[in-house]
Amino acid sequence: xxxxxxxxxxxxxxxxxxxxxxxxxxxxxxxxxxxxxxxxxxxxxxxxxxxxxxxxxxxxxxxxxxxxxxxxxxxxxxxxxxxxxxxxxxxxxxxxxxxxxxxxxxxxxxxxxxxxxxxxxxxxxxxxxxxxxxxxxxxxxxxxxxxxxxxxxxxxxxxxxxxxxxxxxxxxxxxxxxxxxxxx
Length: 184
Ligand code: ADP
Ligand code: 5GP
Description:
Oligomer: single chain
Bound molecules: adenosine-5'-diphosphate, guanosine-5'-monophosphate
Helix content: 40-55%
Strand order of the largest sheet: 2-7-1-8-9
CATH superfamily: P-loop containing nucleotide triphosphate hydrolases
């Protein structure tokens, strides 16, 4: 009998470093896969449909919700984001670790569908550092950054509801803590 894989949820406010952590983790573990989300957000420069996201119209996204094709979904900064269910099931059945890098509302919903999921919350060293990282990334307008910071306050208040809290100050230490939580 093949052993079943596991669902890993990595969440935390925008700009905290989730994407950076995921990009470091994936090449280090060949049994770790990243779920590709659907979104109605416009692609950023360099983003590729089917690789970074499945870019959808609102109508297409709502059809996916109606057809129960999403494991979870949430509205974030004016756009829909959601996790396609089928690839998650496939990777877990293959015995792999499937990683969802998603915002906090969706992350809290995962428990209803996958009670055994391991849910990790990434915290910034401080709110000021979070703002610096969002601005330093240089990818979002001032309005988008303001929306994300406002939302971050509500999100940070929920961190204690997650299985493991990881402070992303030193990147390598944060990576090691995530690896410990997933693989130990
Ligand atoms: P998220 O995916 O959570 O929105 P990103 O991975 O895009 O966040 O990171 C936001 C910014 O913070 C990026 O410019 C990234 O290089 C930087 N960053 C991420 N982790 C660290 C860290 N441990 N120390 C310093 N800067 C970091
Ligand atoms: P961005 O627009 O910066 O790519 O993503 C904005 C936020 O949406 C991030 O916090 C990201 O983790 C989250 N996100 C990405 N995909 C999904 C998803 O499938 N579901 C949920 N709930 N959030 C997602």
